[in-house]
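Sample log: DUF4446 domain-containing protein.
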Amino acid sequence: MWFPIYGIIVIFIGIILLFLLGYIIRLNIRLNRLHKKYDFFMQGASGQSIEYKLQEEVRHLYGLKDIVQKIQDEQQAILSIQNHCFCKIGLKKYDAFDNMGNQLSFAITLLNKKNDGFCLSSIYGRNESRVFAKPIINGTCTYSMSDEEKDSLSQALQHEE
């Protein structure tokens, strides 16, 4: 009478052992995969560990940080120089005399960001050509200006930065 109960218990324990054996095999497979990934990350092509590689990358990033800082400093220097460069231009071509054609006379105004610069005028005649320069400070000229010079100055002042 005890034999059937022992048989059921043995079968039940056998099923549990088979289940545990399958679970152990599954865990062993996962552990092997994890070990392969670990070996892959810990050994590089030259046998270096991932820790060394990370240190190397961090050093590289700090080097890039220094390079970016140098670029920003150079950009600031360029911007400070650019404030003194001519960036606003106005040009007016015209005929200085009625009997002349092709608009060979001109007035050109060159200004920096502070609206300082000069107006250069060239009056072309049949026998000679004359060139005049007038200083511009804060967008105004202390000398009297012709209509063409005023037009070139207003064109230069209208330029966007």
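Observation: Strands lie at 88-94, 105-111, 117-124, 129-137, 140-141.
Observation: Residues 88-158 form one domain.
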